[in-house]
Amino acid sequence: MTITTPPRASSPSSGFGTRAVHAGSEHDPSTGAVIPAISLSTTFAQTAVGQPVGEYEYSRSSNPNRKNFEDMVAALENAKHALAFSSGSATTAVILQSLASGSHVISVSDVYGGTHRYFTQVAKAHGVKVTFTPEIEVDIREHITPATKLVWIETPSNPTLRLVDIRAVATAAHEHGIMVVVDNTFLSPYIQNPLDHGADIVVHSVTKYINGHSDVVMGVAAFNSEELFKRLSFLQNAIGAIPSAFDSWLAHRGAKTLHLRAREATVNATAVGHALEASPHVIAVNYPGLDSHPHRAIAKKQHRNGMGGGMLSFRIRGGHAAAERFCQLTRIFTLAESLGGVESLCEVPSSMTHAGIPKEQREAVGVFDDLVRLSCGVEDAEDLKNDVLQALERAVAETANGANGTNGVNGH
Ligand SMILES: *Cc1c(COP(=O)(O)O)cnc(C)c1O
């Protein structure tokens, strides 16, 4: 009689939800615990010099909870490898530090503020120069030099939700042996898998959708190349910007419901987007799930079922004052930075997340003073829609009347 091994709970061919729940979540072989214990030990016993009992030696180099989380993200991004870091920003820093001094990078203009800060103020200290372009699909070939080693894309962009055709950029970059990185934070692996469209590395601020509960700061990079695994895991250990076992465990727990949260956030953002488009108090809505979006065709090609995700932004009538009032008048949306959690958030990019960028540069990419950014959570669509409509009504009326010492005619 032959003993057959039980089938693995999830395989690369399993659906997304099955992988989210089971990948990296083996039952504990000694107790049968369905959920892995949090492994706080910093060091692991060895039976002889250089022969640890299991696969772990020291927790900076590798830790069971971090490894479980990395295996789960690799499964969700259709990647061979994933490496977790202490934040999305640390992930970016490690990838940039993996480049030799003298390297050149091409980046989309409207990258996350912290990424822009690293590219302009830190990377040059180790001899890496970054060129920014607002239309990377159009002019990437003009910016390529013999020193170009990496292209950095964020799609959708923050906060104007513009999309980049990953395949078009990867094709141009690969002709010159240049690596393509996609920051996939805004959509999560449920809606978009950049490696399937030709990217070499996908990065996430786990802080946002992957963890999804606004209680962990963490980052991750996923990719297929063995050579990248060697280089980046060396830096993960050498630099030591690693997440704790507890944060890895929490983020892993959060990710098990990613598909449910991302679907619900999309339903909610779509409802809010349609309501905003129909409102006389709104100048324009940026949401890749709407047919009015200029890059809707890319969304249909790159996003699961053409989903738009949970993030949108819009320009309110009444200028900056109305935008600020709107964010104070919402009752469910909380005025706060960050995104991707179960709770809905709102903010004014021109004076919060994007305040560091000079006004002309901001406005050139659509970040006007009257722009409001929304992160739709998983509350009920009807409640979110009504909350946005009541806040719009009151914010526009108050600022038109010059209430609160503000004047609706300025701010354009
Ligand atoms: C938040 C964010 C980051 C940075 O991640 P942290 O975890 O805050 O360091 C990078 N990219 C995008 C798109 C983000 O939203």
Strand and helix layout:
Blueprint: H1 16-22, E1 46-48, E2 51-52, H2 64-76, E3 81-85, H3 88-97, E4 104-108, H4 113-121, E5 129-133, H5 136-143, E6 148-154, H6 166-174, E7 179-183, H7 188-191, E8 201-205, E9 219-223, H8 226-239, H9 245-255, H10 258-277, E10 282-286, H11 296-302, E11 311-316, H12 319-329, E12 334-335, E13 345-347, H13 359-364, E14 371-375, H14 381-400
Parallel strand pairs: 4-5, 4-6, 6-7, 7-8, 12-13
Antiparallel strand pairs: 1-2, 3-9, 8-9, 10-11, 11-14, 13-14
Helix pairs in contact: 1-2, 2-9, 3-4, 5-6, 10-14, 12-14
The structure holds pyridoxal-5'-phosphate.
In the predicted model, the low-confidence regions spanning at least 5 consecutive residues are 1-5, 404-412
**Name of the level-1 CATH class of the largest domain:** Alpha Beta
Radius of gyration: 22 Å
Number of domains: 2
Q: Quick check: average pLDDT?
A: 94
Ligand list: pyridoxal-5'-phosphate
Helix content: 25-40%
State the shape: globular
CATH fold title of the largest domain: Aspartate Aminotransferase, domain 2
Summarize the helix and strand pattern as letters. HEEHEHEHEHEHEHEEHHHEHEHEEHEH
Strand order of the largest sheet: 3-9-8-7-6-4-5
What is the number of beta strands? Answer: 14
Q: What distance lies between the first and last C-alpha atoms, to the nearest angstrom?
A: 79 Å
Biggest pleated-sheet summary: 7 strands, mixed
The fraction of residues assigned to DSSP E strands is 15-25%
Determine the oligomeric state from the structure: single chain
